[in-house]
Amino acid sequence: MTISIKLSEDAERRLAETAKRLNVRVEELAAAAVRDLVALPGDDFEAAAQRVLKKNRDLYRRLA
Hints:
Layout: H1 9-22, H2 26-39, H3 42-55, H4 57-63
């Protein structure tokens, strides 16, 4: 599956810095983060997803 996501400049910079520090491509790091998030047990994933949705609610509204 291929997806496209919009990141703030700060998030993009932090992702790139982390990828460089780990010596992996940005795309590989982002994919690993998504895999880790969805691999969490049901309740943990739900709680994490709710935190992300709540934190980014305004952004999602603007992008809709």
